[in-house]
Amino acid sequence: QLGGQPVRFELLAEDDQADPKTATVVAQKLVDSGVKGVVGHLNSGASIPASRIYSDAGIAQISPASTAVAYTHQGFNTTFRLMANDSQQGKALGEYATRLSKRVAVVDDRTAYGQGLIDEVVKAVRTSGGDVVGREFTTDKSTDFTAILTTLKGKRPDVLVFGGMDPQAAPMARQMQTLGIKAQFIGGDGMQSAEFLKLAGSFGEGVIGSSPGLPLEKMPGGMDFAKRFEERFGNVQIYAPFAYDATKVLTGAMMKAGSSDPAKYLPVLASYQMDGVIGPIAFDERGDLKDGPVTLYKVKDGRWEPVETVGGP
């Protein structure tokens, strides 16, 4: 019930196709449909342009997956997220890379996510006393990285950190081996996926990827969530627990405020706290998750195995 009245929540789903322009079209469509809150978007490059439309309409947006720092740094009181941002993730990746070797090379895909993540990695490598021996760029549509990898091979890095998604990371891992680049391949949550394992095959062995949050089995409500999710939908997708908790936070704030009117529940949402599937949830003044943990994984026998978790409450 909301304010003593029975209420039914309805899900309206749209696909932004991971495209910034489509994201704004989708956002406007949702606003025009009269939605009271948004769980999404997935990619930072989509969340950021869409967030302005939700802000102008005064509608809360909780992303379960967007990690770019810029998303919550626009001064909007409508933007929230349920995972560590790329400042936290990039710091963890950069420090880990520098522990492996001082000679680090980086590549990004020029998206808001990829470039933002690598900017933070570069900062962390330098702060940790490492040397960024080369930085190259690609796109989120490319599949041939021979030219940039050949350039980087000449710089003799011991570690190569990639900011981008799995469709690029998998062929990059393969081409690194083909070119005889022995550097440890590391990336962020865009490549720490089941899809990467499928696309990379045996070339994925030994690759390291980070992901904001705890491993599913370490989340306080993870195993119970996995059981219920698998019974209804099959394998748990990486962002499913975060999207589930985002929905619970959104509806919980509405219940506490006694209204689904964003103007009434937004102030409640900003200070709303709960113990979710993913762990304790509370937001800072920007809408970022407080004390967001980051976990590093390594591919072993075709599976992502947790290596270590950095940060957290």
Structure keywords:
single chain, about 325 residues, alpha/beta, seven-stranded mixed sheet, three-stranded parallel sheet, 12 strands, about 40% helix, elongated
Describe this entry's structure for a reader.
The structure is a single chain. With about 325 residues, the chain is α/β, with parallel strands linked by helices. Helix content is about 40%, strand content about 20%. It has ten helices and twelve strands. The protein has helices spanning about 20-30, 45-55, 85-100, 110-125, 145-155, 165-180, 195-200, 220-235, 240-255, 260-270; strands spanning about 35-40, 60-65, 80, 105-110, 130-135, 160-165, 185, 210, 275, 280, 295-300, 305-310. The strands form three sheets. Strands 5-4-6-7-8-11-12 form a seven-stranded mixed beta sheet, sandwiched between helices. Helix 6 links the parallel strand 6 (about 160-165) and strand 7 (about 185). Helix 1 runs parallel beside helix 2, helix 3 (about 85-100) packs across helix 4 and helix 6 runs parallel beside helix 7 (about 195-200). The longest helix has 18 residues, at about 240-255. The protein is elongated and about 65 Å long. The two termini are about 30 Å apart. The model has no long low-confidence stretch (mean pLDDT about 95).
Summarize it.
The chain is of the alpha/beta class and 313 residues long. Helix content is 40%, strand content 19%. Helix 7 links the parallel strand 7 and strand 8.
